Amino acid sequence: MPSVNKISRYDRENPKRIIVIGVGIVGASLAYHLASKGAQVTVVEAQGIASGVTGTSFAWINTSCAGPDPIAALRGGAIAAYRQLETQVPGLTVRWHGALWYGTQDGRVSPACILIERARISQLEPNLRQPPQQAVYEPEQGALDAVAATHTLLAAARALGATVLTHTPVLGFAIQDARVTGVKTAAGVIVADTVVLAAGTGTATLAAQLGASLPIHASPAIFLRYQAPSGLVRGIISRHAMEVRQDDEGTVLAAEDYVDDAPENQPAAMARRTASAIRNELEGAEAIVPEFVCIGLRPMPFDGVPVIGYLPWRTSC
């Protein structure tokens, strides 16, 4: 995530004051990791915890990519980082049940994927009505409850001394001698040595206040939840008709591409169409019931490469 003012070596006797703007899963993770290194962390959020795209995320942790992948090492590193984080933060749990995909048209590949036959596919997902002859399987992929993980990371950050301020919009930045010295809120200025922007689709707007243009756009996707019998889906299934997984409580989660504003592509219509696809694909899914559907806006860099580092900005802003 973009930062203003560089973070120097941590000094636990004189900790750096760092403000993280945004309290989705990225902001929560930053808060925890910075606090664990001795920083004095304040998290500022305009709304509630995980109220943005985190709350409507399919939360698939994967290394797959359609076409050449300039950040393959970063994807693989994320898998390892999540596994390490599970050992450090009590209560943080990832479902490492792997992902299975077939019949897709995006040319998705992964450095750790394997090609498996129908017998193995049926073992992995026994409720598939008509398992394909072959499928691509990635055993190292996983998923999590992004909202629960955000709360867990924030609890760990608070235990290390971090402060979390929700319903506190950032109104601007305090600047002195060509340095950002804090953020302005309705309650006053919060002083900082470094400010980290982790506000999802709002990050570009914040950066613009500092004269920096970030190549980020809000990419819409449709997020769906269904009431369903437990044990319907073991891992993650991705194919052209559906992309689904199931959580520990039995809720089936699905994600669909946003197409357009046509009536047949509105969220409610997509929920019905996806439910039909799930019933056709999975034995025992006849009774699934739509529970929630919405359009989520993902902060996506135009070139697909994460925007991480320090902002160049004009001293005249």
Order of helices and strands: EEHEEEHEEEHEEHEEEEEHEEEEHEE
Total domains: 2
Identify low-pLDDT runs.
none
How are the strands ordered across the major sheet?
Answer: 8-9-6-17-18-19-16-20
Total count of helical runs of at least 4 residues: 6
Largest sheet: 8 strands, mixed
Q: Could you give the count of β-strands?
A: 21
CA radius of gyration is 21 Å
Percent of residues in helices:
10-25%
| CATH architectural name of the largest domain | 2-Layer Sandwich
CATH fold-level assignment of the largest domain: D-Amino Acid Oxidase, Chain A, domain 2
CATH superfamily (homologous) name of the largest domain: D-Amino Acid Oxidase, subunit A, domain 2
**What global shape is seen?**
elongated
Strand proportion, as a percent range, falls in: 25-35%
Arithmetic mean of pLDDT: 90
Give the CATH class of the largest domain.
Answer: Alpha Beta
State the oligomer.
Answer: single chain
Question: Mind explaining what this structure looks like?
Answer:
By secondary structure, the chain is of the alpha+beta class. It has 2 domains: 123 residues, FAD/NAD(P)-binding domain (3-Layer(bba) Sandwich); 170 residues, D-Amino Acid Oxidase, subunit A, domain 2 (D-Amino Acid Oxidase, Chain A, domain 2), CATH 3.30.9. It contains 6 helices and 21 strands. Strands 8-9-6-17-18-19-16-20 form an 8-stranded mixed beta sheet. Helix 1 packs parallel to helix 4. The longest helix has 17 residues. It is elongated, with a radius of gyration of 21 Å. It starts with a strand and ends in a 7-residue tail after the last strand. The model has no long low-confidence stretch (mean pLDDT 90).
